[in-house]
């Protein structure tokens, strides 16, 4: 087992309000802080500037020892983020960065992205035909702009051998610890996680962190019945019940709800029930059986089944991940 060298691509300037510093710090902490009692030598980390900082640009500037030329010869290349404009506005990723990433991959480097860094790997063509992920808030843009990428918005990270991608924020830490586990073994990764006071491996995927509530719709004709349904989720509701309350035929109700929310009535109900279950698990310590009853999912087994399928973790694991305030 070997640690090897890690080239971390850092922006020339990070805005004071940007989350980009978080992903950079995660990778720098994991791979740049020697742990001689766990593995010696540790990783050889080098910070590689993505370009010169503009004079007077507001934000934080990094003092780096090399530019994108530092990617050459690295065992692992990590792109923690791209500028917000590349994600939100569709601005192109820097051609210099794209070329440097392609060259590093062709030279045998393992390529890694954290959060929006996936847009850089995709721009370089390194995700074509591969399964990949990013923060769930950005996966739709990634899939739309790079249809040849198999975007999975349900996982914390994807390990596709020589190319790895992670979801946003702390999922980047999950992937970094996974890399340590691959390179230096489970014992080293577990001990490092303990020192960082984080789980060595989190169960489930990023689906557990997605807001399950359906966005408000301007379908005025449906709003009252949907509000009523949310207030009576503990009842055994059916499409006929909702259609009758909306003074529509079941077929008309189905069509209008599908148009307004993009989902079927049964899936909408299930989503609302799971959202209620999440809220109860986060805010109360009532038994899982009671959570199932109050959310309209019936039994604890039924709750567990749908929770595992839709959220990616068991109700118990979810409750431990989101403990009630003061507990």
Automatic annotation (TrEMBL):
HTH araC/xylS-type domain segment(s): 223-321
Record's keyword terms, sorted: DNA-binding, Transcription, Transcription regulation
Statement: the UniProt record of this protein carries the keyword Transcription regulation: yes
CDD domains listed in its UniProt record: GATase1_AraC_1
SMART domains: HTH_ARAC (SM00342)
Pfam families in the cross-refs: DJ-1_PfpI, HTH_18
Domain of life per record: Bacteria
PROSITE patterns reported for this sequence: HTH_ARAC_FAMILY_1, HTH_ARAC_FAMILY_2
Record protein name field: Helix-turn-helix domain-containing protein
Organism per entry: Amycolatopsis melonis
Lineage: Bacteria, Bacillati, Actinomycetota, Actinomycetes, Pseudonocardiales
